[in-house]
Design brief:
Length: 250
């Protein structure tokens, strides 16, 4: 297995040709941050008075089946949207800002932030490419100064409330690869000269499209593909988990 040190990753970016025809795609969960934004949102939903626990329980059940039994993950993504039907866009944006400031921002890998900045300094087209929703992805994109966000977008009705549906097609696995290829064509980005940083097995399809695939702490299947293909694996240091404060004594 070829290992790519952070210093090597920095040097290759700094030595690369500048210009917006070169892309740098970054996954969010497990790549830019430690852990998963979805888990932060689910815990918060459980604390919200009046949130439909039955819908949430169905979403969690589908997630468990998706990861353990191989159920189509696209079905889980659609179910997660149905669980949010009726909530207002304004409320979800406020929740997203609060959760980002309180918890998600602390999970950001500073070494990955540095790589984003180096691509930006070369005037590369930096894209946050995630299967999360706009409420999870956009606060991180804003934090990193990333203008292009490729994610799953919940549809908002004329009344400002979520319909429970997502814009199609769903951004996941091969669907993410197709969406990235369409975006690259629109922007004039040469994928053969571009980077993609991601950790998940589902991102193998997009890894195959770019000239510089960069698995970051990859899952088992993606690591195996990286070994066969000779893709260098990047393993930036993960920040320690933030310890929650002890509850006040009663």
């Amino acid at each position: 297995m070829t290992r790519l040190s952070l210093e090597q990753a920095r040097r290759e970016i700094d030595a690369s040709p500048p210009g917006p025809e070169i892309g740098a795609f970054f996954d969010l969960d497990g790549t830019l941050i430690r852990g998963f934004t979805a888990s932060v949102f689910v815990r918060d939903h459980l604390r919200i008075k009046g949130f439909d626990r039955n819908d949430l329980a169905r979403t969690l059940r589908l997630a468990r089946e998706a990861f353990v039994r191989g159920v189509d993950f696209v079905e889980w993504i659609r179910a997660s949207g149905e669980a949010l039907a009726g909530r207002t866009d304004a409320a979800l944006r406020a929740q997203a800002e609060r959760l980002f400031a309180d918890e998600i921002a602390t999970r950001l890998l500073e070494d990955m932030r540095d790589l984003v900045r180096r691509h930006q300094a070369r005037a590369h087209r930096v894209v946050l490419a995630s299967s999360s929703t706009q409420y999870q992805a956009e606060p991180m994109a804003k934090e990193l100064g990333i203008d292009l966000v490729l994610c799953n977008r919940l549809i908002i009705g004329a009344d400002g409330r979520l319909t429970g549906a997502f814009e199609e097609p769903i951004v996941w696995g091969p669907g993410k690869a197709r969406a990235a290829r369409r975006l690259a064509a629109e922007l004039g980005v040469d994928l053969a000269r571009s980077w993609f940083y991601a950790d998940g097995n589902e991102d193998e399809a997009l890894m195959h499209l770019v000239g510089r695939p960069r698995p970051v702490h990859p899952g088992p299947r993606l690591a195996a593909v990286a070994r066969r293909r000779g893709w260098p694996i990047l393993a930036p240091e993960r920040p320690p988990r933030r310890r929650r404060p002890d509850p006040p004594e009663r």
